[in-house]
Amino acid sequence: MSTTIGDKTVEVVTSQGPAVSEVAVAAADSFLPVAGLQYLIDFVHSLTGLNWWASIALTTIFIRLATIPLLIDQLRATTKLNLMRPRLEQLKQEMQNMEADPEVLREGQKRMMALFHEYGVTPFSQLKGLFIQGPIFISFFLAFRNKAEKVPSFQNGGAPWFTDLTTPDSMLILPILTAMTFWITVERNMQEGLEGNPVAQTMKTYSRILAVIAIPVMMSFPKALFCYWLTSHIFSLTYGLAIRRPEVQSLLNLPEIPEPPPTASQPPFSIFEAVKKDTTIESEPSLSTETSKVSDRSISSSSILKQRLKSLEKHVKGKKKQISQRST
């Protein structure tokens, strides 16, 4: 019996040996996050016995599940920013009316910072999604490009209709599916926490254009990358549909956004624009000096004109007196 177990162990180690060496070679010259991701995918592949495409999809789901708390925190921050937007717009209008006065502008910026502190957010809170998804996407992209070049088993690790994961999809099925799932996700989930904000419509417009442009750009990518992208987009769509349900929002204690009244469209508020205006005023004192000079010149010109009018008036009065004296 011990001999049988020993033979089976040798068979397992021998069968897993080439795959482990492939991943080790591929991860040897990679950055630490990229190498760690390659080992994680290989661990899922070895543990479950799934093909590479399914292992990639399963790893993607695990990583996206791990980022859900961060995504919920970003959604809370974005919702709070949208709730405070009317007050920010009112403050922006006041600062624009008094933008020639640096003191008033600085006071407005202090009120703005106090408003952010009141809601517990910062101007950068809505960028959390980029900081989360950006490094993950780059790590997956580099990992799959590396594996496609250095892991021979990727050549037969796909599904029946796309067996080779190292080559582009000549039928363009995967790029089109990826663009479609991205577009559907944009249409359904882009306004999470941004209801009534004009920025949301602008973001949606550019995302639609990106979905169309992405198809020719992705034509040269290996099929392995689409196993991640498609899974990630489907996950995002499912997450967005779930988070919009009232019972889920109540469970997560997300603030409710009231329906905005119909008002005239205004440009979106930008704290950076206000700071830039303050810097411009401080860095260009010559502008105010020049303005004061022009004002002084106009004042002096008006005083000279008044003096001339008075002298002319006196001269006319003197002429009238002389005429009246002669007539008498």
Automatic annotation (TrEMBL):
Transmembrane segments annotated in the record for this chain: 52-72, 207-231
Ranges of residues in domain Membrane insertase YidC/Oxa/ALB C-terminal: 52-244
InterPro entries: YidC/ALB3/OXA1/COX18, YidC/Oxa/ALB_C
Superkingdom of the source species: Eukaryota
Keywords: Membrane, Transmembrane, Transmembrane helix
A Pfam short name: 60KD_IMP
NCBIfam families recorded: yidC_oxa1_cterm (TIGR03592)
Protein name, entry field: Putative membrane insertase OXA1/ALB3/YidC, membrane insertase YidC/Oxa1
